[in-house]
Amino acid sequence: MAATAAAQKKKATGYDKYVNWKLFIIPIILFTLILMMPTPYSMKDVAVEYKVGPKAVINFITQEMFQAKAADAEQWQLLAAQIMEDRLNSGALGRQGFLKVDLKWCKSNKIPAEAKNLEKALAYVEANYTDESFQDLMQRALKLQKTDLKYEDLSEKDKKAADQGAWHIKAAIAVTAFVVLCFATECIPLPAVAFCIGLAFMFTGVVTRSEVAMLYWDDACWFIMGSLMFAAAFVKTGVDKRVCMMIFRRLAVPNVKWITLIFFMVITPLAAFISDHALAAMFLPIGMLLYQNSLSEEIPEDPELGKLLMIAIAMACNIGGPGAPSGGARNVIMMTYLKDMFGLDIGYFQWVTYCFPFLFIMIPVTWLLVNWRFKPRITSLAPAMAHLQKEIGKMGGWSSKQVWALIIFVVMVFGWFTEKSFYTSGIIPIRLGIGVIAVAGAVAYIFAGVVNWRDYQEKVDWGVVWLYAGAMIFGRILDRTGAAYWLARSCIDLLAPMGMDAGLPLLMVSNGMTAVITNLMADGPAAAAVGPIALNMAGLVHPGSTFLPFMAMSTAIASSFAYCLIIGTPPNAIVYASGYLEPKDYLRAGVPVWIAAQIVVLLMTQIYWVFRGFGGLPGF
To answer: Dihedral angle at the C-alpha atoms of 572, 177, 181, 489, nearest 10 degrees?
Structure first.
């Protein structure tokens, strides 16, 4: 009976909980109150920009360039205006960037284009516009979209579209409050929150029934699913034990603090150059193995140790991304904004020299904070290493299944590292994506006889897959409706009268807003929501100064601060699949690391960046 009770206690997780209506009623009431409140004018203003702005900008461009309304313009003229409007939304105002547009770009941005029409559009701009005149046209179009369009001046048809857009923003904000409270209180099982997100957006009319299912899935969801599958294959075959011994066998004192330090020293620099998703997936089975083999009859459970190992892996992945442009889409997005809006170019190596020091500082800082927040009873992992050595000895040589598991994994990792460069260089005709490669590897394990479907069914945490799928639709709707943009703009407008609209205070506000939003959605859209606002303000208060590239780099760095919620990053979701973590554990470690990271960026800007300068630009 005691053994049964212990087993049940061990098995108890968040998935076993029923709805706590005493707590769940709070997010429901808040969700309802937000929907019932009068729509602020600021929401209508953003809705005008998102719902009416594109049409107005395209019409303005066709009239200015071709003296024809959009409805009367030729196909190639309309195409030119559509491309300019799309680039305007991303802050890309330069002529040279426009001239580099190709059919692949049009397809990726969902602009229908034929080769002959694109050639005519590019040729017309090249022949009739200088860099200065093109920039002037784009600036006037931007002014129309951002400031000249007023809700009260719209036609009844456009007002109706703006009202609908404002309602969608309000609904997205209501869902945001609902989701954050559900995660904070754990009042319902977390995968159920993922389904509530889609249902809430459906019932409020933000998405249609044909859209909702598609919005749940993404390459990142496939990657998480595939990576959890290959982790199951590693555990079943025992390859995780062999890899773990390879990494840690030479460690003289296998103390848990040194083990976690190795995690940071190995994972964090690599995350600047390769996918943090992949690194989290690689180290998940190793962390789980170390925990499981550390338990003994004297200490049959040590939850703090499991939490420490898992959080260390996630944090090591999260703090590494800012180190290089290849560390995340956010970095490239801010580099592009800076180039297109102000003509300032940051090279790959130049970015590394400015931003990689952030990693050098954050590795010891994060390591200390994580070890401070989690205090395991087991401090020495020497017994675990000895136990692993015995188990590997019992295995004997590498079995055929282990060899196949390792071969498929190596091929999969090679694909993760090279698929983008192979596509851009024309070696492969289609972009595969890391998610497709991960699922292909999982299927290859079945073909090779390494696993069967029962292994995946029992060993993969499918709740985590759905949890991150919910994060996908949530982030996409925040971005698509303009809710993320409204949050960022409202915060900056609110703090501007307090003297926080210039210099380091503006940098701090921009970083803080980005770092909050990035916990709710993917880092790329978070940077895209705050970046143009912050850079435009930076250009107004500190034109032509080092403040512009510093703002771009700090915003990109801040968009990696998704330390506090499971849905913040794929590494957070991947380590949650271990079953060792609760949502509050992310807050326990994430909040102090979030604060420390903000301080590090400000100090690095004030001391290192300001001292170094940027390409001969004057200071601010």
So the answer is: 50
